[in-house]
Amino acid sequence: MANLRDIRNRISSVNNTQQITKAMKMVAAAKLRKAQDRMTQTRPYASKIEEVAGRLAENSNATNPVMRKPEEVKNILFIVVGSDRGLCGGFNNNLFKEVENRLHNDFQNHLDNKTLSMVTIGKKATAHFKKRKYKVINSFPGFFDDIQYDATSRIMEVATAQFVDGDFDEVYIAYNEFKSVIAQNRKVQKVLPIDTEDITKSDSDNASKQAIDYLYEPNSQAILDRLLPLHLNMQLWRAVLESNASEQGARMTAMDSATENAKELERDLRLEYNQARQSAITTEISEIVSGAQALSEN
């Protein structure tokens, strides 16, 4: 049986770990509330821009370079949104597995020909895909230390410019969509080229809105040219906010599980300690009785 001092040291170590995980859970809960507020405020705005841009493109003759459909898909860009820190369960690994499965199932030819490139957001995504020798053309570790709309806009604007110039024929965003504190949806979403049919088919009231004859000022082309870049920027901004909220929820859940596991381990160690202590006391009593009997016989 383990030494009593060793068991006491283990109990102390587990108790300290429990205090750390409990504190991390509380910090994650506070961050989650803020992240959820930003995310819920952004969702309606992003959805409305998507709806207006799709309806405008479908009901007018306006076009834009970001709507260009390539004759042949030669080069593809993936923007993967991970996290900067760990201790959040399977948050990162589940997303990365989903991305890799998608790449090997649907884009194996591009992987073999080195025509698939990646932009990684977050330290974990950067480390994961660079270690596995994917073609990472740009990375943003430490991105979540200070989440700013301007930073995500610059990333999307560069990707959009590369698409317009013909460097890439398709652009995808991979991220964790917030579903609940304990669950996330892993999403791989194509953002370029913009397909107005994909945008408008989610609008249940689309038929009635198409019947309305709108007047555009100055004209539909000018409005579309302004809306589509904003729509693309909002898609990445929303993905970052969704991912951040999902990360905090995953960390909160992971730290809660770790705290409960530490409590259970501490209970088991205290039981083991009491059993070892009782055994030691019984042994000492037996030795004393045996010694007393030996003296009395003499």
Question: Would you give an account of this structure?
Answer:
This protein has 298 residues and is an alpha/beta fold. Helix content is 64%, strand content 13%. The chain contains 8 helices and 5 strands; from the N terminus they run H-E-H-H-E-H-E-H-E-E-H-H-H. Strands 3-2-1-4-5 form a 5-stranded mixed β-sheet, sandwiched between helices. A hairpin with a 2-residue loop joins strand 4 (170-180) and strand 5 (183-192). Helix 1 packs antiparallel against helix 8 and helix 5 (149-164) packs across helix 8. The chain is elongated, with a radius of gyration of 29 Å.
What's this model, at a glance?
Helix content is 64%, strand content 13%. It contains eight helices and five strands, in the order αβααβαβαββααα.
Notable features of this structure?
298 residues, alpha/beta, 5-stranded mixed beta sheet
* Biggest pleated-sheet summary: 5 strands, mixed
Number of helices: 8
Strand order of the largest sheet: 3-2-1-4-5
What oligomeric state best describes the polypeptide chains here?
single chain
Amount of beta strand: 5-15%
Ranges where pLDDT stays below 50 over 5 or more residues in a row are 204-209
Per-chain topology:
Blueprint lengths: L3 H56 L16 E6 L9 H16 L1 H5 L3 E6 L1 H9 L4 E5 L8 H16 L5 E11 L2 E10 L3 H5 L5 H5 L9 H78 L1
Parallel strand pairs: 1-2, 1-4, 2-3
Antiparallel strand pairs: 4-5
Helix pairs in contact: 1-8, 5-8
